[in-house]
Amino acid sequence: MAKLKALALLLLLGLAWAVRPGEPLPDFALLDPAGNLVTPKTMKKPAVIVFWASWCPVCRAEFPGLHKVAEETKVPFYVISREPKDTREVVLEYMKAYPRFIPLLASDRDKPHEVAGRFKVTGQPWTFVVDKEGKVVALFAGRAGREALLDALLLAGVELP
């Protein structure tokens, strides 16, 4: 029970520390699979940014539902591995099952796990919903439920089907 309480406290502290709703996205410069530079200014918005890791069982369980929302809404879902050991090859192989996701990869300027640090992400999955101005409207630490994610997309100005 004490371990569970400590874990809950760490999660709450992480949420308090992370980029919060109303704040702009931290600066980053990562590459999409085609080699195009993606930054907060160049990314399509509204959008969803998901920090994940290839070994994460919660991410594996969550991705099919997130992918379905991406398919239904046509909102870009940018996925960034916060695991330094997730190579380009590992990420691209993993993402074959999720063609609507846009994996963001290391560039000459940034590494994905460093970007996670700028967002102050302390675990995975962490999901940020971003409006057309590039401001965070919602944050989910852990699994993002379908209805809550759809509500956040509405807040971001997405017209749902």
TrEMBL record:
N-terminal signal peptide: 1-18
Keywords: Isomerase, Signal
Chain ranges passing through the membrane: none
Superkingdom of this protein's organism: Bacteria
PROSITE patterns linked: THIOREDOXIN_2
Listed GO MF terms: antioxidant activity; isomerase activity; oxidoreductase activity
Entries under SUPFAM superfamilies matching the protein: Thioredoxin-like
Presence of keyword Cell division: no
Record protein name field: Thiol-disulfide isomerase or thioredoxin
Organism of derivation: Thermus arciformis
